[in-house]
Write a structure and sequence with these properties.
The structure holds two protein chains of two kinds. By secondary structure, chain A is an alpha+beta fold. Chain A contains 23 helices and 48 strands. In chain A, strands 8, 9, 10, 11, 12, 13 and 27 form a seven-stranded mixed beta sheet that branches. The mean pLDDT of chain A is about 95. Chain B is globular. Classes of the chains: A alpha+beta, B alpha+beta.
Chain lengths: ~1000, ~120
């Protein structure tokens, strides 16, 4: 290094690690400014500054520090930033990379991290046992009401951002032959071997730098293929960089493993950069990868030990201590105790000792650690306690001392001895990180020697290697990785070799890993005082698991949910096996019989932005507009979304409110001419010699005798007899029909026709084509419509006498081809004019121009709804809800007797034929000015009865009718068809029921003759 | 997300397909001639198989054609896809689940129902 190193903070080593001491970075935490270096995480930089207490736990608000050094850390959750749009909460300080100006804050504490009111929960812990929520829900009525505000405030994680996220996110889709997850020695070896075959390889590394524990361990005597591990890592990365078909993704974690080797990878692109350097990159990417073969080199996760007082800041995993030392050049404490049940953790004592820390003791639950370790400890003058456990700890915001005592199966045997310390490195052994393997469907088995669960049978094309497979030595990791990479490439059709004759020796720098399980460690303290945490994020203690078993929730999946073990944002990465170990002790069953809980995506929290990708705002869902849309926009249209379409709901004139515009439009349609943009109606062109037979089977009514030139209204039902679409279909020729459907049902109906044609009646010669977009449709209606139509058509006789209701004609308007249907949805004389879509806007403008002398007025969908309700026509989806037959709707006339159709048999099922079913009727309120709110419930009596008044139906459509000068409503009433003239009541919230009379649905009947 | 081999177009992503439920349930030829229970069985009852399952898919964003697939519901592995009208290439255990209503005269019902379940 040529530049002058910056001043080092108290715990920073003068050399070593993946940090750049020439690039100091200033950041803040909890309002205080600190300095770190490029390459630091927030956690390593805070530790370098001696900050251990950074958070409060979820339930008891106990002080939390750094348990792990990576994604497994359960406790050190922070909020990054304070902008209401861009701040992010629940970030793991161990994964937040430092950048200039980074502002981090503690969360889940008030008024401050140091003095947190929520700590009363901790004092009350005896009253907040496992299952507290369930008991409170189940308890005396009102107790949840009482507790909820208190719980909601007290428990919880950070606050949600309050403004829209301005960041951009993206999805990437990739195919590859070999996907390698994890870039430790095993992953690097696998990726290199596969890459040498020429296969497309993606290597995903979760952190900022490849190498895995290569950079978290002292090199010592270790060798990989004859090289020091870090040199080997560099060489492999150089080789991978030379392969054009290798994609190396750092800061990328595999979040989900789904069917058929489809995985999602979550890449952080800019969170580690100051905003000014983010450039044009998206914030996060979600890679969606289809891999022929997957190699899982996801390593292992160290477990804490479960002993009384195991959750103070300054208590950390032994492996985390080595990560701080070797990867970040940080000495996490001056006076350390190591507490373990395995040989691996002893390395932390030696490595800390070798950088000048004092080791107050190594405590091992076993009587027989590796002899080499005992010698090494003796050589360094480190006191060793074997067959001992920690029975208590002290220190509120940082560990101050521990009490250690000998123990055996019966409990604590010796007199406790107090040892002062400022760092406690714990290790309960390593658990292979099987989350992704388990997500892939692979089974797990318990390995007695490793005291952990390891991958058993794979269900997809996936191979776990290295520590992920329970192979903890360097030699096994590298040889296993090489072989997996070769085999994966070969399985994908590439030729690869697993051996490199030039490669030298691979060996570990430490004795082989040995562990003796120690799940729940005893203490000499009174039982009620013992608090041994299993889940440090959700504050679940061993005692809670005991309680779960006592209360009948001993099965592992039950215990998990009852106590919330492993259900925090860390998904219990350090928790799972310990919880199972504790349960096995309580239930006195071998651990292998307890089983594991299910691993589910995502491996760790990912942003909603990444899930949504580009599909936000205008790209969330396609919006369809008609050819006339621009005119609607320019003329005051208020739009609503129907299906995927934007439809004009009403056209407001200056100074007019919605209701006034609606009434004006409807009066115009009844008294002069209204015009509706009906382009969105689904239109299906049906051809073929069997088209008529086909229609006859699809529609509930009869189609065999419909003559060319005529139209017919049809109802479609499902096989269960329930109406699902309706529309008018025109017979253009014996083998050619023009079907219309509801706007929202167009795609569904076409799919329905295709399904029945292809799967039930492939013998019928019939072809369906969607022509919805081919035609623009303007429907003119009203008493003066025939005059305008006569003006308009070049070659169609518009006279209603000769161009009668329910017929159609083809002709021209100013030379433009047009299909005109004499159908009506309003009860007025109507002409539904179809022209090629490119003439749609022209047609509309022409109608407005030539219709002006007749008083033409555009009306929107709201007017359409009102006009058809006056006439008693149904809208599928408004009057119907998938539980109504044609008979229920009063349309028994549309059910043919002489031939089968889809759903016919269901109409005579006992339930469908009941005469007390909900049936469609009209309602007239006693007070003609009162418009019933749509959705209102109908009751039989004037007063609501106690305890509950039976509901006999509900209102589906309700309007003030300008034509009748009073309110009208359509409703579904039990047995309604037999209750004409009966008085019912409409229930209202907080007001007396309103009386109304049951009538027929055609409110215009008797007023005048329609069409 | 599956990859599915459309018998007409080849392998495509699941996003192009629609699901159609259990396959080989023939529509009764004479619905009026069967009992309410038999009709209800056709309309409402489906097998909930763990293992090899014959099911219908439609290539809605492709050729729009329906076809059948054999999928292992436990592993989501597609064993085969085949065109409508063909028999499943491997035997399946559908229609034999205990939850289905017991029909008094299964043979006669199958006759009327145009074969019913295989």
């Amino acid at each position: 290094m040529s530049a002058q190193p910056a001043r080092l903070s108290q715990n920073r080593l003068s050399q070593g690690g993946l940090i750049d001491r020439t690039q100091p970075i200033t950041f803040s935490f909890d309002g205080k400014r600190y300095q770190g270096f490029a390459g630091d995480t927030l956690a390593s930089a805070l530790l370098a500054n001696g900050v251990h207490h950074v958070a409060r736990s979820f339930k008891y608000h106990r002080p939390r520090g750094f348990m792990g050094a990576g994604p497994e850390d359960p406790g050190a959750l922070v909020r990054i930033g304070s902008d209401p749009a861009t701040m992010v909460v629940n970030q793991r300080a161990t994964e937040v990379e430092l950048h200039e100006g980074l502002e981090a804050f503690p969360q889940n504490c008030w008024p401050s991290l140091r003095f947190d009111i929520g700590v009363v929960n901790d004092l009350m812990h005896r009253f907040l046992p496992a299952g507290f929520y369930y008991k409170t829900f189940m308890g005396p009525p009102g107790s949840w009401m009482f507790f909820e505000p208190f719980i909601r405030r007290a428990a919880g994680l950070g606050p949600a951002p309050s403004a829209p996220d301005p960041a951009r996110y993206e999805h990437m889709n990739r195919h590859c032959e070999v996907l390698v997850i994890g870039s430790g020695p095993a992953g690097l070896a696998a990726a290199r071997q596969a890459a040498r075959s020429g296969a497309r390889v993606i290597l995903a590394e979760e952190s900022a730098a490849c190498g895995g524990r290569i950079f978290a361990e002292a090199e010592g005597d270790a060798l990989i293929e004859g090289l020091a591990p870090r040199a080997w890592c560099t060489r492999v990365l150089e080789e991978l960089a030379d392969h054009p078909d290798v994609t190396l993704l750092t800061r990328t974690s595999a979040s989900g493993y789904y069917a058929q080797n489809w995985l999602t990878l979550f890449e952080n692109c800019t969170d580690h950069l100051p905003p000014s350097q983010a450039g044009n990159l998206p914030r996060h990417r979600l890679w969606r990868v289809r891999a022929q073969q997957v190699v899982l080199a996801t390593g292992a996760i160290e477990r804490p030990l479960v002993f009384n007082g195991n959750d103070r800041p300054g208590i950390m995993l032994a492996s985390a201590a080595r990560t701080w030392l070797h990867r970040y050049g940080v000495r996490p404490g001056e006076n350390a105790v190591i507490f373990a049940n395995n040989d691996d953790a002893w390395r932390s004592a030696f490595d800390l000792h070798d950088v000048g820390a004092r080791i107050a003791a190594i405590i091992d639950t076993r009587p027989d650690p590796a002899p080499a370790h005992r010698e090494a400890a003796q050589a360094r003058g480190i006191p060793v306690r074997l067959g001992a456990t920690i029975v208590a700890t002290r220190g509120r915001r940082r560990i101050r001392s521990i009490d250690v005592a000998a123990f055996d199966a019966g409990g604590v045997t010796g007199k406790p001895e107090r040892i002062a310390c400022d760092l406690l490195c714990v290790s309960g052994g390593w658990s292979p990180n099987v989350a992704l393997f388990s997500q892939s469907g692979g089974s797990l088995r318990h390995d007695e020697a490793l005291a952990s669960f390891v991958p058993d049978e794979a269900r997809q094309e996936v191979v776990p290697v290295g520590a992920c497979a329970g192979a903890f030595s360097l030699e096994e990791a590298v040889s296993g990785g090489r072989e997996a990479g070769r085999a994966a490439a070969q399985a994908a059709g590439f030729v690869a070799s697993a051996t490199d004759p030039a490669a030298g020796e691979t060996r570990d720098g430490a004795p082989p890993y040995r562990v003796a399980p120690a799940w729940e460690l005893p203490s000499n303290r009174p039982k009620s005082r013992i608090r041994a945490f299993v889940d440090h994020q959700n504050d679940v203690t061993a005692k809670d698991l005991h309680l779960a078993v006592r209360e009948g929730y001993g099965a592992v999946e039950h215990a998990k949910r009852y106590t919330t073990t492993g259900m925090g944002t860390d998904q219990g990465k350090t928790v799972g096996v310990n919880a199972i170990g504790v349960l096995s002790g309580v239930l006195d069953k071998p651990i292998g019989e307890i089983g594991v809980t299910t691993f589910r995506p995502p491996w760790k929290p990912i942003s909603f932005g990444a899930v949504a990708g580009q599909h936000v705002g205008a790209l969330f869902h396609p919006r369809r507009t008609t050819a006339m849309h621009d005119w609607h926009v320019a003329n005051g249209a208020v739009f609503e979304i129907v299906g995927d379409w934007l439809r004009a709901r009403v056209y407001r004139q200056p100074g007019e409110d919605f209701e006034a515009a609606l009434q004006r439009e409807c009066r115009a349609a009844r008294n002069a001419i209204g015009v509706l943009d009906a382009s969105t109606l689904g239109k299906i062109d049906i051809r073929g010699k069997d088209a008529r037979v086909f229609l006859n089977r699809i529609y509930s009514n009869a189609w065999m005798k419909l003559e060319p030139g005529r139209c017919r209204y049809g109802l479609m039902t499902n096989e269960d007899g329930m109406v699902f679409d309706d529309g008018v279909t025109a017979c253009l020729g014996d083998d050619h029909f023009h079907m219309t459907t509801t706007t929202g049902g167009a795609a569904r109906v076409l799919a329905w026709l295709e399904e029945y044609h292809q799967t039930e009646w492939p013998d019928l010669e019939v072809f369906m084509t969607s022509v919805t977009e081919q035609w623009a449709v303007a429907s003119i209606c009203g008493p003066r419509a025939p005059e305008l139509a006569a003006d308009l058509f070049d070659d169609i006789d518009a006279d209603p006498e000769r161009f009668p209701f329910m017929s159609h004609a083809s002709g021209h308007i100013d030379g433009v081809p047009a299909r005109v249907f004499r159908v009506s949805f309003t009860g007025e004389i109507s002409y539904e004019i179809n022209v090629p879509a490119s003439y749609g806007l022209w047609l509309w403008r022409t109608l407005m121009e030539r219709g002006a002398p007749y008083g033409i007025t555009p009306y929107g969908t709201e007017g359409m709804h009102l006009l058809r309700a006056e006439k008693g026509f149904i809208i599928v989806g408004q009057e119907t809800d998938g539980t109504l037959t044609p008979v229920d709707l009063g349309m028994g006339w549309a059910v043919k007797k002489n031939a089968d159709f889809i759903g016919k048999r269901s109409l005579t099922r006992s339930d469908t034929a009941r005469d007390d079913r909900l049936q469609l009727v009209g309602l007239l309120t006693a007070d003609p000015a009162f418009v019933i709110p749509e959705g209102s419930q109908i009751i039989a009596s004037a007063r609501e009865q106690s305890p509950r008044t039976p509901m006999i139906g509900h209102v589906t459509s309700s309007y003030f009718s300008p034509t009748l000068g009073r309110s009208i409503a359509l409703a579904l009433v039990a047995g309604g068809h037999g209750r004409m003239g009966e008085r019912i009541h409409v229930a209202r919230a907080g007001a007396d029921p309103v009386p109304a009379t049951i009538t027929g649905t055609d409110f215009l009947a008797g007023l005048k003759d329609a069409s | 997300m599956f990859r599915i081999r459309c018998p007409y177009c080849g392998e495509r992503d699941q996003i192009e397909f629609g699901y159609g439920g259990e396959a080989h349930i023939a529509r009764p030829r004479e619905p009026e001639a069967i009992s309410d229970a038999q009709w209800a069985d056709y309309v409402f009852m489906r097998t909930n198989t763990k293992g090899l399952f014959a099911e219908r898919w439609v290539h809605s964003a492709g050729c729009r054609r329906w076809f059948n697939a054999l999928r292992d519901t436990a592993t989501d592995r597609f064993v085969a896809t085949y065109v409508i009208g063909e028999a499943p290439p491997l035997p399946v255990t559908q229609g034999a689940d205990d939850g289905a209503p017991v029909e008094e005269d299964a043979e006669a019902a199958a006759d009327l129902a145009g074969g019913g379940r295989p």
